[in-house]
Design brief:
With about 220 residues, this protein is mainly α. Helices cover about 60% and strands about 0% of the residues. It starts with 12 loop residues before the first helix and ends in a 10-residue tail after the last helix.
Length: about 220
């Protein structure tokens, strides 16, 4: 018998509302939405440029990552794979990008430009396969892959358990004694399937609305 492939659920404004309603059965998340309202969709355009920007946002603030991306875009004359692949490593580093990230970005640009990596193909894959295809690229770890799935591909059940802001928000929302690590948060997130990407947005909504707190690193 031929297996049936189920298309991944992609978040829209309508499915976001549906998910918020479903997750309101969870007391911890309901408290957040009652206080702050439903979270934004926080959508990004899928493709090479967004993936590069998320790589630049690794372990830095959102503002720092965006500024680095804008410098890289100016240096290349555009954020296409072909233009960035034409740069030297030194030119990328001159845009204020670390040597390691410069290597990652240049390798990703070259692979995309010559067809070894195709973001459009990744977008058509089921969640687990898309995540694996991303992580197979040098410089793209679980956090980057999960954020890309959540923000750019808008997968409804993406869950970036390694995100520090998400871990802190989960500690506060669930009234835990300590900030959960990635493996613990992965286990805790089981309760919010198949809408974990929306649960993450709700928890980030809490995080961002806490006084004196810096914006999450996404």
């Amino acid at each position: 018998m031929r297996s049936i492939t189920v298309a991944p659920v992609r978040l829209t404004r309508e499915t976001l509302r549906e998910a918020v309603d479903a997750l309101s059965r969870d007391a911890a998340l309901r408290r957040i939405t009652e206080r702050h309202g439903p979270p934004p969709l926080w959508a990004r355009r899928p493709g090479f440029a967004t993936l590069v920007q998320i790589v630049l946002e690794q372990q830095v603030s959102l503002a720092s990552g965006r500024a680095a991306f804008e410098r890289l875009e100016r240096a290349a004359g555009g954020a296409t794979a072909e233009r960035i692949a034409a740069l030297t490593p030194a030119r990328i580093r001159a845009a204020g990008i670390t040597r390691q990230k410069a290597d990652y970005i240049l390798e990703l640009a070259r692979a995309t430009a010559d067809g070894r990596f195709d973001p459009a193909h990744v977008a058509r894959l089921p969640d687990d396969e898309a995540r694996a295809a991303l992580i197979a690229r040098r410089g793209i770890g679980p956090w980057t892959a999960d954020v890309y799935l959540l923000m750019a591909l808008r997968r409804a059940d993406a869950w970036p358990a390694g995100d520090l802001a998400l871990q802190i928000a989960a500690k506060e929302a669930l009234r835990l004694r300590a900030v959960p690590d990635a493996s613990t948060l992965e286990r805790l997130g089981e309760r919010w399937k198949p809408w974990r990407a929306v649960a993450a947005r709700i928890l980030w909504q809490h995080y961002l609305n806490t006084p004196r707190r810096r914006a999450r690193p996404l």
